Amino acid sequence: MKTIEAFFLRAKHWQLFLLFVGAVGLGEMVATAIMTASISSTGSVGSAGFVWGAIMALGMLCFVGWFWALGTFLNSISQPSLRLKPSFFRFALIYPVLYIFLAAPFFLNPDTSMFAIILPLHFFAMFCLFYDLYFVSKHLVIAETGKGATFYDFAGPFFLIWFFPVGIWFVQPRINRFYAERNRAEVLAENAAKP
What we know:
mainly alpha, elongated
């Protein structure tokens, strides 16, 4: 887990952009083309829907992994008195991923009788993703300023992370700086402890 966290915290903005938009975006275009060809030739989605779903799940896992790394790291470097409790944050990271896997059959073959069940689950997954945005952006501002933050204070990072293809270019360098500072402090502490 530390390796994955270190990757997301050390990665440059352009590397994450390529991961999120390049690999996942191109993968979804290819999967959509395969699905369209399958529908036009056989009249059904068939196994192409599973390819599309797998690529969507991979993209979601990368995105949630980035949130997890940022939220965990920023929470650890924030002042203890200003930290939000990470328990719901952890749940809010896991639920949307589970929701995608559980709701995928509904989206591949929509059934109107399941709509009343899927809709609240879908809105709760959206709420969880917004809570993740809130948690990460608030802790980013708390880590930078060292004091409490209202929504007005962290609205900029919130919207930058929400529109991540653009925002990642502004947010990730700040994360890289914090990560480098923490590593530098750990090395200095280790060197000071040596005789």
